[in-house]
Specification:
200 residues; alpha/beta; 6-stranded mixed β-sheet; two-stranded antiparallel ribbon; 4 helices
Length: 200
C-alpha cells in the first residue's frame, strides 16, 4: 500500500474512534422500527474553550477583527450564526441520509410526516484554525435526544457524544464554518453506525 494512503487511512480511522458516546437515558432498541425523524438543532448554553460564554467569544473575536478592519467583526458574528443553517446542519443531514444503509431511516428539518423528533443539542464547540502552516481540527460535543413529537417528556434515548473531531477537509478548511461542519459529518457517521448496529 502506498505510504501516503496508509497514513491517510490511519489518520481518518483514529478520528472516527476518538469520539465517545454514552447513553444517559433510554436505550437504542427503543428506536427500532422508526424510519423518520424531524430534526431540531439546539445551540443554547454553548461552551467554547477559554471563554466564559459564547457571547464573550464573539465579543473578543469581533473586537480583534474590527481593530484590523472596521466592520469585519460584525460580518464574523453574522457568519458565526448563519453557518449553522448553511454548513453544519445540511452536512449532518446529507451525511446521515447518505450513509444509512438502503435509506431505511431518514432525517430532516421540518419533516411533517415524521412522528418522532431527534434533537441535536450542541453543548461544546471548538472552531479550530488553519493559517496555512499550522492548523487544528474543529471539535464538538453533542447531546442527542429522541422523543415522540407529542410526548417530549418521554425520552426514548438520550446520548452524549464527546470528542467529536473534524477530519480536516484535506487541509483546505480555511473557513471556520467548513471546519466545524466537518465535525458534524463525523458525528453523523458515528450516529448512523450506532443506530444501525443496534437496530438492524
Amino acid at each position: 500500500m502506498n505510504k501516503l494512503l496508509f497514513f491517510a487511512l490511519l489518520f481518518s480511522t483514529s478520528i472516527m474512534f476518538s469520539q465517545k458516546e454514552k447513553v444517559t437515558k433510554g436505550d437504542w432498541s427503543n428506536l427500532k422500527g422508526i424510519t423518520e425523524y424531524d430534526l431540531v438543532f439546539d445551540y443554547s448554553d454553548l461552551e467554547i474553550p477559554k471563554y466564559d460564554s459564547e457571547e464573550d467569544f464573539l465579543d473578543d473575536k469581533m473586537a480583534k477583527r474590527n481593530d484590523k478592519e472596521p466592520g469585519s467583526g460584525e460580518a464574523f458574528k453574522k457568519s458565526w450564526f448563519s453557518d449553522r443553517e448553511e454548513f453544519y446542519e445540511p452536512r449532518f443531514i446529507e451525511t446521515f441520509n447518505d450513509k444509512y444503509k438502503d435509506g431505511l431511516v431518514r432525517v430532516d428539518r421540518d419533516l411533517g410526516s415524521a412522528e418522532y423528533t431527534m434533537k441535536i443539542h450542541t453543548t461544546f464547540m471548538y472552531p479550530g484554525y488553519n493559517v496555512g502552516v499550522v492548523r487544528h481540527n474543529s471539535k464538538i460535543e453533542v447531546t442527542l435526544t429522541v422523543y415522540k413529537n407529542d410526548s417530549p417528556e418521554d425520552i426514548l434515548i438520550s446520548v452524549d457524544y464527546t470528542k467529536v473531531e473534524g477530519a480536516g477537509g484535506g487541509g483546505y478548511d480555511f473557513n471556520s464554518g467548513q471546519r466545524i461542519a466537518d465535525a458534524y459529518i463525523i458525528f453523523a457517521r458515528a450516529l448512523v453506525k450506532d443506530m444501525y448496529k443496534n437496530n438492524k
